[in-house]
Amino acid sequence: MTSKHLKKIFSPKSIAVIGASERPESVGRLSLKNLIDGGFGGRIYPVNRNYESIQQLACFASVAALPEVADLAIICTPAATVPDVVKQCGQAGIRGIIIQSAGFCEVGAEGARLQDEIVAVAKTFPGTKIIGPNCVGIISPHRHLNASLASEMPPAGNVAFISQSGALCTPILEWAINQNVGFSQFVSIGNMADVTIADLIDYFAEDPWTESIVLYVESLTEARAFLSAARAFTQSKPIIAFKSGRFDASAAAAASHTGAMVGVDSAYEAAFARAGIVRANELDDLFDSAEFLARHPKPCGDRLAIVTNAGGPGVMATDALLQRNGKLAPLSDATIAALDAQLPAAWSRCNPVDVIGDASDQRYASALQTVIRDRNVDAVLVLLAPQATTDPSGVADAVIAAARSTTKPVLASWMGCTRVAEGIRRLTQAGVPVYETPEKCVRVFMQLVRYGRNREMLCETPLEVPLTFPVDEAERRKCVVDAVDARPDERTPLSEYESKLVLKNYGFRVAETEIARSQEEAVAIADRLGYPVVLKVYSPQIMHKTDVDGVELNLTSGDRVREAYQEIGRRVAQHRSDFDFGGVTVQPMVVASLSRELILGAKRDPVFGPVLLVGAGGITAELVQDYAMELPPLNERLARRMLESLQSWPLLKGYRGRRGVNVDLLVECLLRMSKLIVECPEIAEIDINPLLASDRDVIALDSRIILDGKMRRKSSSRFAHLAIRPYPEEFIRNIELRDGTPVVLRPIKPEDEPMWHRLIESCSAETIQQRFRYMFRTATHTMASRFCFIDYDRELAIVVEVIEDGVKQIAGVARFVADADHYEAEFAILVADRWQGRGLGSLMTDKCLTICKRWNIQSVVAETAASNHRMIQMFQRRGFEIDRSKSFDTVMVKKSLLDAD
Fold it and tell me: Are 24 and 32 in contact (CB under 8 A)?
């Protein structure tokens, strides 16, 4: 429904400008003028009781006096009047609103109160959608709609631009016009009182002109909605984002090592990567990426061919490419032979292809066409350094001709100033991305490559890693719950002993730890555990024990334990006399000569919730800064990717004859940490440092957990603390079919891809045709990823899992995909031929309809082949309306869930 109502804003037939004016420099005058000058073809109604006409348009005294219900209202009145104006719009039936007025939450408490009042008023008129307040507005070039305060209309193109900064809009528009870069939509979103970036991403996903999105982000609020929308969009189209405010001082207040290492910007970095968003680190990169995406929105491979007339620029481009993990395309033997026949004997005979300094436009043209045809080449970068005989304009024409002959990306760098200006102009006008330097070309090329890599990584099929736990969920959480109940409104640190108890409940192997309140108790524990042992200070106020010199290692006798106990007490008193010395913890000394120290933990970010971290550990963890981050929940592939991205990954694998660590056990530890964080929203910070990994074992030597009682879990919002909805285990059921066959009814997951392929292979051509409405020979990974890798906030697939000949199989799958507002869902079902007629279709359909009602979805729609009588009868028995009018071979069905039993 959001998309339906946003359509009123982006494609209106009539617009009311409330607060329109003839007063120079006023927002109302500028807004109306831009609307008229932009060439809007619909009806425009100025609203201001002080005028009879404005800019030769009849003016109306009030919204109620308009001759029709406008699709869109642009509000330009003073902030104090806006709530009442929104009410007038609602009463008149106007549901699309842009508030350009300023003076709201950006100016303080009174402004925030006014903004809250606007939101409250809008909610009384269902379907009302507001962009702003405090925004520049929107521009829709394809519709000649300039509903903004920016006077320039950019060219029409296929890049949607969304900015939280109004001040940035004017320079970007000027740059776009100068560079001939077109936009499908241009939005200054302002304070986001109602319409969010997520809403716009969802809307632009359905926009026929939008092939990519460029974001300028200052801050986000609804993280789950944003990530869900972005993940859906980036499955087929790229998003490039620039996030301002990259540095913060919050890490200084963190209690744990993990907390100090995970800053605000780090959380955005992890979130963008998880959503498939490519991040631009410089504003120039954002502009350049917008230009490149306007020409080439589809992902491409990373093998770049470089054609140049000078060796130096070719080397510069090569260095930039390899530094960013790109690849020089390996030219085929046939390409080398063809270039031998076209180029002087002194040419480079490799990539970069140096066509020599005196290269003519004809030489460039022939070399380019040859390189482009090479199947090993994914994209081509053309460099020109003007020399005495160079014709920059002629070579530009050759590049333009080559670019038009291929779907592969072609980029150019014309280095210089006056002599190359005409060539640059021709390339720009022809739509060939051209940049000042080779490095800039490589940067924007790698943005598109990173998008493709991100998308592939997010759809890599994970392995099934069954996790078992020593106790059930209630017992796993007991220590956390008891601590929060004792101090419900405070941040509560758990002791090392308590923290390790939580870890043990989640299946971690920990160094056995006991608390000693006296010297003799410490000796008794050490005698029982066996020497050597480690003593650590036990105090709820001390987070980092080494900061107070509170650790004694390798104690080999009772006398050494007594001495260490006294020494630790003395040091604590010396460092912090105000701290309580509660004794020590005693644990066995673990020899680490053939092990690696890691840190594993999580910290709750104010926007994205928990962020997991793994990296090089020990007391120098914060100094080394070798870590990787990810949002929970994790699967096997995401966990493994985190480890593989570490600089220390070669050491973990094994280096120079030294055995590597047990990576599978490390992956399992990451999955256990993910499970812990998913189930315990009360955890504000947690780290295990060091996590000692060897080739045989992974053991937690030390751990600390900080709880926040204000995040106590509520049964109605079990996963509200997470930015990504975890696997919905609550829908798993063990049942029996009518004939007594035991089956598991459960949601699909990425690990099911191999079974999904086997299901497709087992189906007849007729069954495939009836389900997918088209035929295919073999299901690909790309196809499978659409069905197995799903966003549990927006869709669900219920599978029937059976065991045949001792092997797990999927006998059928039913799927519903909801719109972003959970208003309507599309339903589809597939049952393997040999399992048809046994009630699986009815079973899965009923399960899906039950979940749809739980999601408050109002209606479910589906289509099936007119010849599929069994399916049509199944729908009829469940109260679906049958519509045979759309096509002779297709039946549409629909069921309202509003009053369904």
Answer: no
**What's the CA gap between 591 and 59, in Å, rounded?**
85
DSSP string, 354-403: E--TT--HHHHHHHHHHHHH-TT-SEEEEEE---TT--HHHHHHHHHHHH
Query: Residue 571: what pLDDT?
Result: 86
CA distance 514 to 744: 43
Rounded to whole angstroms, how far apart are CA atoms 616 and 661? 13
**What are the strands of the beta sheet with 533-537, ordered from one edge?**
514-516, 584-588, 533-537, 551-555
pLDDT band of 887, cuts 50, 70, 90: confident
What percent of the chain has a predicted confidence (pLDDT) above 90?
63
Residue 741 pLDDT > 50: yes
Mean confidence (pLDDT) of the chain? 89
Q: How far is CA 685 from the centre of its chain?
A: 22
% of the chain beyond a pLDDT of 70: 95
Taking CA atoms, 816 is separated from 2, 664, 861, 888, in Å, by 19, 35, 9, 24
Do 751 and 463 meet the contact criterion of CB atoms below 8 Å apart? yes
- From 134, 150, 297, select the one nearest 209 (Cα to Cα): 297
Count of C-beta atoms within a 10 Å radius of residue 124: 11
**Quick one: residue 855, left, alpha or beta (phi over 0 = left, psi -120 to 50 = alpha)?**
alpha
Which sign, positive or negative, has the C-alpha torsion 711, 714, 719, 723? Answer: negative
The C-alpha angle 270, 272, 276, rounded to 5 degrees, equals: 115
What does the alpha-carbon distance between residue 390 and residue 384 come to, in Å, rounded to a whole number?
Answer: 9
Nearest of 761, 774, 772, 740 to residue 834 by alpha carbon: 761
Separation of alpha carbons 433 and 439, rounded Å: 14
Q: Output the pLDDT for position 899.
A: 63
Alpha helices in 77-196 (DSSP H): 82-92, 109-123, 169-179
237-260 burial by CB neighbour count: b if 16+ within 10 A, else e?
bbbbbbbeeeeeeebeebbbbbbb
- Of 50, 51, 52, 20, nearest in space to 35 by CA: 20
pTM for this model (two decimals): 0.88
What pLDDT, on a 0 to 100 scale, did the predictor assign at position 261?
47
Q: Are 102 and 134 in contact (CB under 8 A)?
A: yes
Phi-psi region of 776 (alpha: psi -120 to 50; beta: other; left: phi over 0): beta
Cα–Cα distance, 844 to 381 (Å, whole number) = 52
Please report, for residues 706, 739, 746, the alpha-carbon distance to residue 735 in angstroms, rounded to integers and kept in the order given.
41, 11, 11
Among residues 47, 44, 48, the alpha carbon closest in space to that of 71 is found at 44
The answer to whether the CB of 84 falls within 8 A of the CB of 64 is: no
Question: Across the strands, what pairs with 895?
Answer: 860
Say what the pLDDT of residue 745 is. 96
Whether the predicted pLDDT of 120 surpasses 70 = yes
Residue whose C-alpha is closest to residue 97's, from 5, 25, 13, 186: 5
The mean pLDDT of 648-660, rounded to a whole number, is: 85
Predicted confidence band at 253 (pLDDT cuts at 50, 70, 90)? very low
What is the per-residue DSSP string for 58-100?
Answer: E-BSSGGG-SS--SEEEE-S-GGGHHHHHHHHHHHT--EEEE-
Are the CB atoms for 673 and 456 separated by under 8 Å? Answer: no
The reported pLDDT for the residue numbered 141 is: 96
- pLDDT higher at 280 or 413: 413
- In order of 112, 160, 260, 863, 901, the CA distances from 618 in angstroms are 46, 46, 14, 59, 59
As a whole number of angstroms, the distance between CA 158 and CA 64 comes to 37
User: Cα–Cα distance between 662 and 668 in angstroms, integer?
Assistant: 10
The one-character DSSP state at 309 is S
CA 467/CA 476 separation, integer angstroms? 14
